[in-house]
Amino acid sequence: MTNKELQQLISTWNDQLVFSEEASEFLNVTVPKEFLVEVCIKLKETSELDFDYLFCLTGIDYGEELGVIYHLESISKKHSIVLKVSTSDREKPVLDTVSNIWRTAEFHEMEVYDFLGINFTNHANMKRLFLPPEWVGFPLRKDYEDEANMVIK
Predict the structure, then answer these.
(1) DSSP class of 40
(2) What global pTM score does this model have?
(3) What is the pLDDT of residues 60-72, one digit of tens each?
(4) Which of the four, 56, 119, 128, 130, has the lowest number of CB atoms within 10 Å?
(5) How far apart are CA 16 and CA 132, in angstroms?
């Protein structure tokens, strides 16, 4: 499917989805966090789409908000899409896990938690992945205080 065809189909699911191509080869879809799991399930289970592979999940600090970017692909249909979701709660950022939809999300979500502090509800093993448990703070946040100069920005 082309990006236009993907957009036409997916736009019928929810009027709060925001589409853009952002000078990218992928269709970019911003999803309100309360609809993330619902949209992800449809992307995977809709036979015309068959987004069976989450090949990248990245956390990002936008300044005012924290977010996650999901790169999905259909191996059989040979099309890709990018989902973006964010939360404005920097004190206790929470998003729903997609690890029960795509198993590859399990470690990616742990990494995002480790470095940005976004907690993923219903994740089976949410814990720090790279940093020691006693580490204070989240080093990839823009407001992280790095007095020892351990993180290069």
Answers:
(1) H
(2) 0.92
(3) 999 999 999 999 9
(4) 130
(5) 39
Strands 79-87 and 27-30: parallel
Cβ 97 vs Cβ 41: under 8 Å: no
Q: Which two tokens stand for residue 123?
A: 């994740």
CATH architecture of 3-121: 2-Layer Sandwich (3.30)
Euclidean distance between the first and final Cα of the chain, in Å? 38
C-alpha distances out from residue 115 to 23, 26, 36, 54, 83, Å: 28, 26, 21, 20, 20
Distances (CA, A) of 103 to 84, 97, 100, 138, 151: 19, 10, 6, 24, 29
In this predicted structure, the answer to whether residue 149 has a pLDDT above a threshold of 90 is no
User: Please, how many CA atoms are within 13 Å of residue 19, restricted to the half-sphere of its CB?
Assistant: 16
